[in-house]
Amino acid sequence: VSVSNLVETLFMLLLEHEMMVVQPTTVMHLDNAMDMLICSSLMSSLSFLGVIAIDRYITIFYALRYHSIMTIQRAVTIIVVVWVVSSISSTIFIAYDGKAVILCLVIFFLSMITLIMGLYIHMFSLAHQHARRISSLQRKQSAPHFTSMRGAITLTILLGVFFICWGPFFLHLILILTCPEKPACNCYFRYFNLYLILLICNSV
């Protein structure tokens, strides 16, 4: 995500300041190629965040069977499938550019958000219950609160950074679908480069 965004931003700046002269058709082809790269990297990045959440879920709820469920071969297969599907999808999206594409990206984003939040909240609730049981056995009343707070802070950081970095970009896409002509929406559209910088920060 970072590399593709940086390359496109640099390319746009060079064109704007007339430091690079390119034929309009070449610019269009390069723009399509970079849009495809950005789209595929965005989709794969979101997909991998979902896959990591699923992997952590398996680690906690199927701890004894984890190594039989998540083998190296399956892990490699998942990585390849995510990249291939993301690349094919992004190629189709760029070929059939339009509001339907933006709608698909927004639905995909909301689906991944729901999946990730659902899994992490379930894991956190299990950890909270586990801490309470240990505390009741050891007769220490302070332990569950401390463990719960530490878990809550970790979960807040994970999801908070994710929302801060990805939220503005996908709000931009949602506004393109819902109110592209309104002055308030047009004002929000002006800061698109800032939203791309946030995506780069998230990758870092």
From TrEMBL:
Annotated membrane topology: Multi-pass membrane protein
Subcellular location: Cell membrane
A Pfam match: 7tm_1
The entry's keywords: Cell membrane, G-protein coupled receptor, Glycoprotein, Membrane, Receptor, Transducer, Transmembrane, Transmembrane helix
One Gene Ontology term, aspect cellular component: plasma membrane
TM ranges: 33-54, 75-94, 100-127, 148-177
One example GO MF annotation: melanocortin receptor activity
Chain ranges of the G-protein coupled receptors family 1 profile domain: 1-204
Main location: membrane
The family this protein is said to belong to: Belongs to the G-protein coupled receptor 1 family.
Designated name of the protein: Melanocortin 1 receptor
Organism: Podarcis tiliguerta (Tyrrhenian wall lizard)
Gene: mc1r
